[in-house]
Amino acid sequence: xxxxxxxxxxxxxMEGRQAxxxxxWHLLDQWMELDESRATWEEVEALYREIVDCWRAxxxxxxxxxxxxxxxxxxxxVSNGSHGVDFWRQDLEEFGWLAYLDAIFSSGDLIxxxxxxxxxxxxxxxxxxxxxxxxxxxxxxxMDVAGAKALGITAVWKRNGQPLPPxxxxxxxxxxxxxxxxxxxxx
Length: 187
Fold this sequence. Notes:
Blueprint: E1 3-7, H1 9-13, E2 14-15, H2 17-33, H3 41-52, E3 56-57, H4 61-70, E4 75-79, H5 85-94, E5 103-106, H6 107-110, H7 117-127, E6 134-138, H8 141-150, E7 154-158, E8 172-174
Parallel strand pairs: 1-4, 1-6, 4-5, 6-7, 7-8
Antiparallel strand pairs: 2-3
Helix pairs in contact: 2-3
């Protein structure tokens, strides 16, 4: 049975990325005013939470995750997030996604970032599947698609509304997560 491995939780499943990036620059300006030698973890986390508040799930993210689980697929998140999974588990819970996830991996825990094979290999191992049974969905061709393809994993590039031609490197190109449900690899 194929496995849908959803990548890059925040960008691929969420919108508001540009607003979050703009807000990040504003927060970095605030950070520069903080005395780094006296900044507490609570202050740093508060700045991070302000950024996260700009993010929201794409309208079809939760329904797509639910449909994949109903079809019997295992689902994992493989993220290049700089913080470990525990740091953003609350966000996943607030989106209602934890019930649909079988595994979650972050480069913040594993040190290596995609396209390094370690993150993909850990997800495959946790889900108990081989690369030819897996499908990777990501929004970055250079990291998500390239990393998946290097291991023989079917790769889906989610353009996130960018008016770009399909990637020659990806097996499939989609604009909305719901489109996954119609792909031959998942039917």
